[in-house]
């Protein structure tokens, strides 16, 4: 068995013990809830390809057991800085990047999607790919002091996990473009104003509060919960499906530009990049 691949073992779906995937994603059943935890703290929970695959496997597990609601959270001071660029570069250069696959559900919900309510608890840094994980959740709880960003444009790329579409849908066009096109980060006050998080709580309370909300959701009849969620998502995102299909091809097109090559060269040489729009 390849040690770099997540293990799919449906025999343990209904137990209450954590399930480890690549030692960076843990799955736990707690009553009517499934808890999924990122744990790559030595890298501020940066997401590498095995971790993304393991997240997809954990979502698949949650979707196929009898949990009514799901909670996503992370170990350590940061929820996640986002994509781990060094580990993902070979995958991107080979044009083999994918959040899909057998036994997985796309954690960004741009193709396959978790059919159960997802509540996320975040803290510290929530950057780029991690922000897209957060935006794909249905309810979001943030610790006071959390910093958010969707700054791919400043790196010569574009959000490939639906971040631009979801920000515009939730925050409004101008509010979304203010942050997407500058690449700057923002704090919890702005996140609440934009509607990107529903509650801000003291640091350390974000997971208990997310669990509390998820338990209230899970106390309702499961079929009614899922039907309400499905109808709401269909109404909001039906128009986005065609655009979702263009996300990865657009990313690959930008990776082939002279501007992206200039960014890499400038980083290597320790200078400011000079972009030419080519």
TrEMBL record:
Signal peptide annotation: none
A Pfam entry, by short name: ECH_1
MF-aspect GO terms: catalytic activity
Region (Disordered), start-end ranges: 1-21
InterPro entries assigned: ClpP/crotonase-like_dom_sf, Enoyl-CoA_hydra/iso, Enoyl-CoA_hydra_C
TM annotation in the entry: none
Similarity-based family: Belongs to the enoyl-CoA hydratase/isomerase family.
Name of the protein: Enoyl-CoA hydratase
Organism of derivation: Actinomadura soli
């Amino acid at each position: 068995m390849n040690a770099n691949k997540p293990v799919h073992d449906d025999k343990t779906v209904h137990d209450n013990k954590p399930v480890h995937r690549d030692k960076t994603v843990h799955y736990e059943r707690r009553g009517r809830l499934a808890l999924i935890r990122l744990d790559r703290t030595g890298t501020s929970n940066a997401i590498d390809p095995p971790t993304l695959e393991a997240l997809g496997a954990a979502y698949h597990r949650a979707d196929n057991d009898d949990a009514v609601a799901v909670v996503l959270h992370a170990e350590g001071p940061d929820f996640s800085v986002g994509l781990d660029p060094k580990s993902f570069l070979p995958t991107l250069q080979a044009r083999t990047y994918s959040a899909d696959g057998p036994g997985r559900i796309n954690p960004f919900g741009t193709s396959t999607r978790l059919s159960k309510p997802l509540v996320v608890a975040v803290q510290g840094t929530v950057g780029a790919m991690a922000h897209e994980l957060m935006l794909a959740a249905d309810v979001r709880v943030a610790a006071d002091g959390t910093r958010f960003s969707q700054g791919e444009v400043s790196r010569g790329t574009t959000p490939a996990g639906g971040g631009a579409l979801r920000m515009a849908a939730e925050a409004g066009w101008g509010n979304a473009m203010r942050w997407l096109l500058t690449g700057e980060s923002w704090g919890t006050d702005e996140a609440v104003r934009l509607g990107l998080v529903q509650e801000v709580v003291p640091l350390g309370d974000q997971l208990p509060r997310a669990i509390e909300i998820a338990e209230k959701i899970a106390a309702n009849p499961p079929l009614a919960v899922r039907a309400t969620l499905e109808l709401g998502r269909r109404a909001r995102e039906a128009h986005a499906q065609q655009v979702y299909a263009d996300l990865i091809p657009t990313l690959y097109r930008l990776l082939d530009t002279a501007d992206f090559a200039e960014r890499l060269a400038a980083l290597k040489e320790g200078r400011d990049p000079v972009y030419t729009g080519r």
